[in-house]
TrEMBL record:
Monomer. One of its GO terms (molecular function) is cysteine-glucosaminylinositol ligase activity. Belongs to the class-I aminoacyl-tRNA synthetase family. MshC subfamily. The keyword Zinc applies. Its cofactor is Zn(2+). Gene3D superfamilies: Anticodon-binding domain of a subclass of class I aminoacyl-tRNA synthetases (1.20.120.640), HUPs (3.40.50.620). This is L-cysteine:1D-myo-inositol 2-amino-2-deoxy-alpha-D-glucopyranoside ligase. Its EC number is 6.3.1.13. GO terms for cellular component: cytosol. It comes from Streptomyces venezuelae. It catalyses: 1D-myo-inositol 2-amino-2-deoxy-alpha-D-glucopyranoside + L-cysteine + ATP = 1D-myo-inositol 2-(L-cysteinylamino)-2-deoxy-alpha-D-glucopyranoside + AMP + diphosphate + H(+).
């Protein structure tokens, strides 16, 4: 599966700072100082109802991570999946009387278009669940053969007891995990499971549903969590720098994925930091595919909204915060974009070297994009109030905003 084209990232003078970021597992801020190559895995979409603003906010956060690392002169290996076969996708296709593969392909293509318009840097490895199946099956067989998985009526489940670190990503108690498992695709009430929290690794073929050769597992399809584990281990290995996604993925998805990987390899941890973006609401409720209260990037673009303004609207909120999309949020972003573009359109201006360092410092501090925007706002105000004579300043501001914030002025 191919990703989307990369926009050029301008080079800035000097060098960026190492990233300090909030880690869900330790519930504190840690400093990430990778070697010459930084490694990040971000969980991708299930391709229907793409791309809504909640999606965009999440991928914007991890785009900032890439930009901070690139500014430190590191190479970045970024991996993202597409869950192009899963119960919710099949249910949507059935509801709308569509072929599930056509639905997945169309929505994935739309997601690529939106990511391109928003200037999100693409992953080097963009992998669909279906194409990952040949690598998933041997991992499930290994877990079963090691006693970390078991069969139940033809399905194969992972035993959470196989990982002594289980629970260490989300830090939830058993009852909270059980409730979330039921809400988020698990089946804690199924009779015969060794532990209600045990997640499915391989689902035996069901009538009328797609299935693939699972070797000794029989025909079927993979569970949700093992999909990302197989892709991450294949392209990043253990101990990569960041496992990222929305806050609703901390449990069960990232918790279970970490346990799968740790049971497979005997190594800990799967990722050095588990980083989660907040949820976006509309009319007082979290944007949700099930509720249908979604604002789509593609619809905003068709209505003539500049993608740079959409991105500024996302950047005006801290990535870990839950916030609400409103017309006022978008209007403020449109006005900010106009002010910034007018300020950098002048032939000269006030010096901007200090601004570069302010933006770097803000982003290195747990991706504090609102502080970075405020720093640019201050430069713009001074630019409008002062007759500067630095001919290089407007260009430097434009390159800084582009390189570090992904906004083209």
């Amino acid at each position: 599966m191919h990703a989307w084209p990369a926009s050029e990232v301008p080079a800035l003078p000097g060098k960026g700072r190492d990233l300090q970021i909030h880690d869900t597992a330790t519930q504190g801020t840690i400093t990430l100082a990778p070697g010459p190559v930084a490694r990040i895995y971000v969980c991708g979409i299930t391709p229907y109802d793409a791309t809504h603003i909640g999606h965009a906010a999440t991928y914007n956060a991890f785009d900032l991570v890439q930009r901070v690392w690139l500014d430190t002169k590191r190479q970045v290996i970024y991996v993202q999946n597409v869950t192009d076969v899963d119960d919710p996708l099949l249910e949507r296709a059935l509801r709308d009387n569509q072929d599930w593969t056509e639905l997945a392909e169309r929505e994935t293509a739309l997601f690529r278009e939106d990511m391109t318009a928003l200037r999100m840097l693409p992953p080097q490895h963009y992998i669909g669940a279906v194409e990952a199946i040949p690598g998933i099956v041997p991992l499930v067989e290994r877990l079963r053969d090691a006693g970390a998985a078991y069969e139940l009526d033809g399905d194969t489940y992972f035993s959470v007891e196989a990982d002594p670190h289980f629970g260490g990503v989300s830090n939830l108690d058993a009852e909270a995990m059980r409730l979330l498992s039921a809400e988020r695709g698990g089946d804690p009430e199924r009779p015969g499971k060794k532990n209600p929290l045990d997640p499915m690794l391989w689902m035996a073929a069901r009538p009328g549903e797609p299935s693939w050769d699972g070797g000794s597992l029989g025909r079927g399809r993979p569970g949700w969590h093992i999909e990302c584990v197989a892709i991450a281990l294949d392209h990043l290995g253990m101990g990569f720098d960041i496992q990222g996604g929305g806050s609703d993925l901390a449990f069960p998805h990232h918790e279970m994925g970490a346990s799968h990987a740790q049971a497979l390899t005997g190594e800990f941890p799967m990722a050095k930091a588990y980083v989660h973006a907040g949820m976006v609401a509309l009319h007082g409720e979290k944007m949700s595919k099930s509720k249908g209260n979604l604002v789509f990037v593609s619809a905003l673009r068709r209505a003539g909204v500049d993608p740079a303004a959409i991105r500024l609207a996302l950047l005006s909120h801290h990535y870990r915060a839950d916030w609400e999309w409103t017309d006022e949020v978008l209007a403020e972003a449109v006005a900010r974009l106009e002010r910034w573009r007018a300020a950098v359109s002048r032939p000269d201006g006030i010096p901007a070297d200090a601004l570069v360092e302010e933006v770097r410092e803000a982003l290195a501090n747990d991706l504090d994009a609102p502080a970075a925007l405020a720093a640019v706002d201050r430069w713009v105000e001074l630019q409008n109030a002062t007759d500067g004579d630095d001919e290089s300043a407007p260009g430097l501001v434009s390159r800084t905003v582009d390189a570090l914030l992904g906004v083209a002025l």
